[in-house]
Each structure stands twice: as structure tokens, then as C-alpha cells.
Amino acid sequence: MKKLVFVSALLFSVLTLFLSTNFASAAPTSFARWASATQTILVSSYSSNYSAWSTGATKWKNSTNFKVSTIVGSHSSNYYAYDVYDSNVDWDGIAKTTHGNGVITKSVLNFNTYHTSKSNYTASIKAGLAGHEIGHSLGLNHVSVVEIPTNSIMYPYTFKSNGSPARALSPTSADITVVNNLYKKSIGSILSTSKEDGIYLTPSWSVYYEDEIALEKDADLVVRAKVIDYLGSHMDKNKVQPYTTKHILEIQDVIKGDIKEEKIVISQMGGSDGVTNVFGEHTTLLTVNDEIIVFLKESEDGSYRPINEDDGIYLYKDYEGEFVNIRNNEGFSSFEYKAR
Ligand SMILES: [Zn+2]
């Protein structure tokens, strides 16, 4: 019996409490803006979630300078929303936003009905999710995962793992201030943006896992592994999540799950085809020779995905002698690992 030593569970709670206390008033940052503050989102006539998008837009329109409304239509535009169904991803909603020089030129918003058709997605949860995605589409980043969840509609998770709602369902005063600064009445000089030009995938995760024990419970497979090969980025425009990067993992130890293969393929969001750069907002791409412990779900094509992208990957750090969450300043901490 192999076992993880979850020293992190306690560490994580302490860390969360500490950081929450210090960053309680943190507001979301912005990455870009539309040239005009008046926008219309076209919602596909095939969508069964028009009222969620409409209510989500109204939340911003009524509280900020960003005057966004919705109409139903059958043609795509530069700002549109439609439903997708994908059981192979952990996100319930996503925004794909294209920007250059700080100006947003296109945003496509999706609900993933694999998640949102479940009974825990009530009308108010869905309107909150729509408001969250519209927040991305107007130029907002997520708040940190160590933020107090209800301080911002831009918290990345919909539910806690105990099933209760995680994020604010309407823009909070912190959100409103940021948006009003972004969309001042006179549109001045273009923002300087800290982000590279490209397409940004900003997912909303259905579930927040409070620690590694919760991650392990939901994982199909937990392994210690080494990244041995890069399989490249794949752009399949017909897929719901069209941009992925794949690596081969050599399994060194199986912590949970039943697997005969010694090598598996891991798939992460985003990548580059040499022309377009696509960034997963919650994704740090692996590199060859990385040694990791990874909490995985199996997808239908036989590849594996880390749960909630960065949430599920722990990278071995020599100098610390332990596995540290790949996005190590973002809430999830590190843990000791002992084989057998
Ligand atoms: Zn999001």
C-alpha cells in the first residue's frame, strides 16, 4: 500500500486563513478591455440558457459602466454565447477572449451543459456563472484562490466540495470598482497590459477541492511520474476545448487507481501552433524532465487530464525535497511523499 503523507492539509488551512486575512479586500485585476463600453452579446437560439446570460449581463449593466445586454440570434458575432456538452472537462463555463495591445476584439462564452444541466445548477447559480464568464469577457482575471470566495464574482470555482455555492453570484463592490475604472466614460489611452497578445481560455471550475485528500477522492488515477516527451500542441477547431498540449508521462508509482501501462498521455489546456498563442488561465504547461505527483481524470480518448488543470499537479522541488503545487503561490501547498 502506497501512501501520501498529507502534511499539507493542516498547512493549507493555516495558509488560507493567513492569506485570506491579508488579502480580504483584493479585487480582480484586468487584462484588456473592449474599445467601447456598450456591447451586445448574441446568445445562440439553440441555447437553453438564455435567461442565465440575460440575467448575468443585467448584473453588470445595472451596476457598472459596462453596458452589456443580450439578444437571441442564429449567427455568431464577435461577442457570443452558446451551450456545449463535454464530459471530458472539469469546467462548467469558459470564456475564450482574443485581445491585442490591450483591446479585446472577440469573446466567445460557453456553458458546459454536462455540468450545468445537473440539479445543483439552479437558476441563480447559472446566472452567477453567466455573470462570471461575462466578467472575463469584459476583461477581468480571476481573483486568487486564497481570496475569500464570496468577495468577488471572479472566484474561479462554482461549488465547494461539500456542494455549497462558492463564489459571489453578483458583482461585488470590489468587482464594480475595477470595471468602472476600466470603462471610464472618456476612453483614454489604451491600457498597458501585462499579458501577451493571444487567446485566453478562462474556465470556471465546477468544484473547488480544499486539499489533496479531496482531490484524491475524485481522481481516477493518482501517480508519481516523470515527463519524458513532448507531443506538441493540438488545435482542433471542432472540439469544445480546441487547444491542448500533450506530454508523455512515465509512471514511477501508482498512488491510486488501476493501471497496467507504464506510460500515459497527459493533456493540458492551451499551447501554440506557432501562429496563435493560446493560454489556459489556470494552466502551467509541463516541461520534459519535470517530476510530478498528479491527480488525474481519464478522458474518452484514453488520455488523462489533471483535475482542474493546475490544481491537480504537484512538481518536485529539489531544494525543498517535496512536491509543491505547480502554481505554488496560489493556495494549494506542498506535501511530503513516501512510497510504500
Ligand atoms: Zn473564470
Ordered list of secondary-structure elements with their pairings:
Layout: E1 3-5, H1 8-22, E2 33-34, E3 38-44, H2 50-63, E4 67-73, E5 79-84, E6 91-100, E7 103-112, H3 113-116, H4 123-137, E8 157-160, H5 173-182, E9 198-208, H6 212-218, E10 221-235, E11 243-256, E12 263-269, E13 271-272, E14 277-280, E15 291-298, E16 304-306, E17 313-317, E18 322-325, E19 334-338
Parallel strand pairs: 2-7, 3-4, 3-5, 5-7, 8-9, 9-14
Antiparallel strand pairs: 1-19, 6-7, 6-9, 10-11, 10-15, 11-12, 13-14, 15-16, 15-17, 17-18, 18-19
Helix pairs in contact: 2-4
Bound molecules: zinc ion.
Give the structure's gist in a few sentences.
The protein has 340 residues and is an alpha/beta fold.
- DSSP strand content: 35-45%
Helix/strand-derived category reads: alpha/beta
Distance between the termini: 6 Å
Order of helices and strands: EHEEHEEEEHHEHEHEEEEEEEEEE
Shape: globular
Which topology of the largest domain does CATH recognise?
Answer: Collagenase (Catalytic Domain)
Oligomeric status of the shown chains?
single chain
How much helical structure, as a percent, in the residues? 10-25%
**Quick one: CATH class of the largest domain?**
Alpha Beta
Mean pLDDT, all residues: 85
Biggest β-sheet description: 10 strands, mixed
Evaluate the radius of gyration.
20 Å
* Small molecules bound: zinc ion
How many distinct domains?
Answer: 2
Q: CATH H-level name of the largest domain... which superfamily? A: Collagenase (Catalytic Domain)
- Poorly predicted runs: 6-24
Beta strands, count: 19
Number of helices: 6
CATH architecture of the largest domain: 3-Layer(aba) Sandwich
